[in-house]
Amino acid sequence: MSRVLLFSRILGFEENHIREIERRREQRYVPGKVFPLQATIDVDGEPRSAKIMDLSPGGAGLRVAGPAYTRGSLAKLHLMIDDSWVEFACTIAHVRILPSGCRLGLTAGFASFDEKKAYLQLLQPIAIGSVFRVTPPEEVRQLDPGMHKLVFTGRPGTELNVWRQTDDAGPFHSLHWQMDDYIVQATVGAEMQVYSRKYMIAPTRAKASGPAYRKLPADVQAEISRLFRWTMLNLPKDVPADVRTFVQGF
Hints:
Blueprint: H1 15-22, E1 38-43, E2 46-56, E3 59-64, E4 74-81, E5 84-98, E6 101-108, H2 113-129, E7 133-134, E8 147-153, E9 158-165, E10 172-179, E11 182-187, E12 193-196, E13 200-201, E14 212-213, H3 218-232, H4 241-247
Antiparallel strand pairs: 1-2, 1-4, 2-3, 3-6, 4-5, 5-6, 7-8, 8-9, 9-10, 10-11, 11-12, 13-14
Helix pairs in contact: 2-3
């Protein structure tokens, strides 16, 4: 396992971007039930597994079984997913006793800018995915004969389009996800395609049928794919269950 920046090539997170995120310090995001992020809280050298209730740029909400904790206590929060992890110091700001354990509110105390950046990059798939909402059907233009388009929008610059065959109950056909310059397209039975507008080829008169892209470096493609897949694992209940299952299958 290693502590690394998960999206160092596609999410630069310079200091001015970090400051913009921190303006939403109290905004809480709820991880999707299928998102495999694990948490451990360590107080006085006694680590305990915890259930993540929500995460924010400034801390976390956890549910922990076992003995109660004391408000104001210092702790370490360890977050792990796949073979990567982030760990940082925090303070227990709130404690609510439950029948089996307690609910904790943690305030982060990052030791360095790099530590803060690593955590905020880990937060992004949750922050992006959890705020997607359904666009009302009457606002969606149906331009493809034989296809029914569904649109889901989230934070500015992010959109998920899903096509079903024939009507809104037909079999799923394809999807198009875009976040800023990054694009993922997928069709049932075909390999997922990953693009970046930063690698777009300037159109010519001879080729005006649609955008063309240069091949992405392998590490950039891997990060876009990971961001897409993890974002889909954090879609909220506002997105229908069958749509979630479809987009999470790529």
